[in-house]
Amino acid sequence: MPRFYFHFVAKTLLQDESGETFADADKAILHARMLASELAQNGLLAGCAIVVANEAEDHLLEVPLTAWVS
Hints:
Elements: E1 3-9, E2 13-14, E3 20-21, H1 25-40, E4 49-53, E5 59-64
Antiparallel strand pairs: 1-2, 1-3, 1-4, 4-5
């Protein structure tokens, strides 16, 4: 299974060095959205995001945490 990385962007990029394996990019993106939702619940991470990258370090998606604050 391919490995995907979930980098955290605040004022700087905090790289995910280990990543996680998922069957495909859609499942990895769903995981990133769940992470963003969990992290956004404290309301202190405005302006932050999770960047999903594949093994080739291609940027697949950026999920802003503010999109999940209700």
